[in-house]
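By convention, the token line describes the chain's fold. To illustrate:
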Amino acid sequence: MNPTIDTLLAHRSIRKFSSQHITPKTLDNILQCAISASSSSFIQCVSIIRVTNPETRQQIAALAGGQHYVASAAEFLVFCADYNRHQQIHPSAQLGYSEQTLIGAVDTGLMGQNALIAAESLGLGGVFIGGIRNDPEQLTQLLSLPEHVLPLFGLCLGYPDQQPETKPRLPQSILVHQETYQAVDKSELAQYDKQITDYYASRSTNSKQMTWSEQITTILSKESRPFMQQYLHKQGFSVK
């Protein structure tokens, strides 16, 4: 093991932060690590919006489903796939292709993960906020996002004021396939479901009785954010 692997394996979402500020130097290091992430064809189609205005933070917290830590975290960053910058450079750029949406999502995710890993390596914690997509129209207005900019997720950062348990992930026996795709091993899944049931029952906060399979069944039994395709098209993404 080494410090990098230790940091990765110790990951947990932090939703309660102390009042300690993040210094400009520390934030600069985190952002530079984010920017250093891999980029498909060196397109660099990501923008990060740092939101510091308390009122805007409160509004985003409400839009995200009442996630108060959006307002209380030392820093809140919004990660966006961004081809508007490219259009400014090349006004006749051919945009709107579905492949570009995929590239934007992948590159943005890589940059966000780099930022969080860097923060955790410095003793900070954080949590990604997919809830910013609950009302993308209002978020677009709040952040003055032009066409060809797509807000994908937020990231709260700060010094942890809690130590939640590490949530068990799917084992390699289910997640890693050898040579070709393989069906789920039901016995391995049953063991994981029991592990998750035990975890939910014993964790220090928000205990519940549910297997992972039951959780997935609940989530995927209905359409989530049915307005998203229309919003994507409005922002100029995946129109062709």
